[in-house]
Amino acid sequence: ALFEFPQPLGDACFPIDTGLGPADSTPPPPPSTGSAICKPPSGNGICQKDSIACPGGAYVSGLCPGTAADIRCCPSVPAPSAPKTCKPPNGDGICQKDNIACPGGAYITGLCPSTAADIRCCPTTPPPAPAAPKTCKPPSGTGICQKDTIACPGGAYITGLCPGTAADIRCCPTAPPPSTAPKICKPPSGTGICQKDSISCPGGAYITGLCPGTAADIRCCPSPATCKPPSGNGICQKDSIACPGGAYVSGLCPGGDDVRCCPTKAAAPVGSCKMRRDRFGKRIVAC
Predict the structure, then answer these.
(1) Residue 155 falls in which region: left (phi positive, over 0), alpha (psi -120 to 50) or beta
(2) Mean of the per-residue pLDDT values for the chain?
(3) Residue 239 · residue 251 · CB < 8 Å
(4) Mean pLDDT value of segment 188-215
């Protein structure tokens, strides 16, 4: 049998089913204009074309994923600048407003030039503790080397005991010198003084054991007993000691034969006494 093909339909065409569904005529979305938020190292930012001036300074790359290469992160505010430094007398410091607490103590004026009047230097560390004063050795006790314009609790300054210092740095004793008044002791009769037993004792023999806390050669010298010579007063002492009142008088003092009465005032020459009146008009004898 013969087959006959249908006649061509000319230019007519028919759609071919591809299984892909109707063609999508919606245009693709335009690229982002950079309104997304980004997070620079400090503060916040926005993603925008890097051809636009960035108020926060330099653009930061890599913080606007899924955008064109020229869309980068613009910080919204400039990064805070490092504080200006200053040089206080000790250590370092920063220039800042003086209404902020300063960890290093007091603010210092004049170390932050070209700034506002309330921007002053704040030391970043407290000043070091003052060094301990240099010590010195006065004749008695100890002392410290300091300016001799400062009152010295130990009395007078001593020169030459603070080598390697300024001329006005001298040795100040830390305590007053010990009293030179002799220590009193109590012999069996009367009183005495503690002194070196190499010194002649006017009261007679030294007595051991009455001067505690002293050297072995410091012993109690009894004070001489008083006596009554024919004129005035006197003291009992060894007659080997010079007597300021003249000649010794025997028989007026207890003790050995060499302890006699020494008048404390020379006897008035005979005939030198006169009758006169005192300030109350009473008649007296004056020698």
Answers:
(1) left
(2) 81
(3) no
(4) 87
Copy the structure tokens of residue 81. 């600048």
For the cut 50, the answer to whether the pLDDT of residue 32 exceeds it is no
What are the tokens at 283? 């008649």
Q: What is the Cα–Cα distance from 124 to 96, expressed in whole angstroms?
A: 11
Tokens of 15: 């759609």
pLDDT, one tens digit per residue, over 103-162 is 888 999 999 998 899 999 999 877 777 778 899 999 888 899 999 999 998 889 999 999
| Token code pair at residue 100 | 């902020």
State the amino acid at position 203 in one-letter form: G
Backbone torsions φ then ψ of 170, nearest 5 degrees: -130, 170
